[in-house]
Amino acid sequence: MENLTAKRQFTNCARKTTELRTTCLKPSTTMAVIVLGLLSVVSNGQVVRSDPSNYFGLDLNRAFGNSLPMNDGLSSFGRPRILPDLAGAQIKWAQPYPKLIPKISRQPTARVAASVSSANQFVLRDFASPPNGAYPATGVIRDSAGNLYGTTNGAYSDIGGGGSNNAGVVFKVDISGNETVLYSFTGGADGSSPNGLVRDSAGTLYGTTTYGGGSGAGVVFKVDKTGHETVLYSFTGGADGGNPYAVIRDSAGNLYGVTESGGNGVGVVFKVDTSDNETVLYTFTGGADGAYPNNVIRDSFGTLYGTTTYGGSASGTSGAGVVFKLDMSGHETVLYTFTGGADGGNSDAGVIRAAGNLYGTTNGGGASGAGVVFKVDTSGHETVLYTFTGGADGGNPYAGVIRDSAGILYGTTAFGGTAGLGVVFKVDMSGNETVLHTFKRGLDGDQPYEAGVILDSVGNLYGTNAFGGAGGQGTVYKLDTSGNETVVYAFPGAAPGQYPYNAGVFFGSDGLLYGTTFYGGKLGHGVVYNLDGVGNEKVLYNFHLLTANGFGQPTGTLIRDSEGNLYGTTFIGPTEVGYGNGVVFKVDTTGHSTVLHNFTGGPDGGDPYGGVIRDSNGNLYGTAELGGSSGAGVVFK
Hints:
The chain contains no helices and 44 strands. The N and C termini lie far apart (about 50 Å). About 0% of the residues lie in helices and about 35% in strands. It is an all-beta fold. The protein has a five-stranded antiparallel sheet, with no helix packed on it. It is globular.
């Protein structure tokens, strides 16, 4: 039996295909590039000077020092990179750029290589987590007064959810757009990376975390109106399940949910009663009964309904999933088995129920492979209500749907739309789809990811975007009945920057250390900074993606010329829509930036992860992982 802790297999972000990142854009050439070599394989590390005295290593999780970055499951490092240590010996570092991977346990694993035994590490700067939270990915709920409640969880495994320990927060946004952090997770016994919430009549919020707890396999928690958190149950990752999704609550106060791991390795359905006792209601085998369940709903008789992402027609991750019900005695019935063809496949969301019929979405299958909206009636017959093309109409819905009194369904897609960053849609009873809003790169946020929408009494829709917004860390938005979007709250980035992914530091002739961060800053898209000898930081430049010529998320170590100008590369380049292939940039002593080259991803290359070096004539040299005549990368000047 396959034991895949996380279900969603995304494409490497470097390939710029169907991933959900803000780390990719689409440029046009702004200067000539001389390609020095076309490589069958390009190392993603920059060419570095042999003199080790001016180079320090930067530890992603522990600021910097002469120590190796931790391969801890948070940042999915790829191919190794060879750099000199302070003594001139070669040591192997993990590949320095982030990839998109499924969420996995945040338990540290072995380092890629042992640290230099004679070196003592001293932390000069510890980059802070955004205190208000970052990257809300699971939507919001709304109380009768109009206040919105939700969580931030980082959206992907290589970035945290902000808060005091970067393990995510529970937040409230009032009707004036003011955010209050109700609880900030520590990432320990209290949990890490929270999912969606439910709220009782007393105002207590209930939810789960995917990670943390006593065994690192997640918890069920509640947060009261004073912000006090109580762990109701801590999963072991064994027979009781592990890595739960959101819960629902019955009138007696019992909580029900699913886990994506544990049991037979493919998830369980569980109940936590009012005495905090957990009962496994059903353990999936990964065969015809399904594998990796999604959130469940409950009818008045106590029957639970849901979907699985895999299993059904084939075992493990080979199947396209099922729609199931589970009665009070724990007997599971498969109501429909997806084929992965025109009927859809691989649902990542639960279902809703109306007049006995079940409605939901699949992120795959359909005529274009971009997912469908479906209905399963009381006889187990499936009807495809709408098939996404992956174009302007949206594609790959990871969230489910809601239904109004007229029978109209509303939801979001993770991809598609004119910018490829998702849409809000509705589907009427005749199967006609209308795009209500198209997300684009800008201040309104983008990529709803797993967050669907909720509906108020006058027809306004509310939801979250995992990325974008004024701070680059995601938004809470409102969409009125005319399709006009209002940002209710934009999560701010950490002003000093955060996540210095593969950005080492160097000593300038002025005795200061210089470097970059991949995220954070006032605009959320990284900074150029320097540090003095006691760790005081000065932000020299804030990268900004949300302008017509914006670029950001720098990669590779900076260099500095004799006049104090700084040179480097970014992962994202200027473009109005979608993703791009990176730039070479210059920041002068006044903080003014210039794009020296905007990569196209064609013969000139694309994705210059490793930064640049400079010769005595002022020419810059580097590598780009993509592009070239064979698409396998280039060395450029």
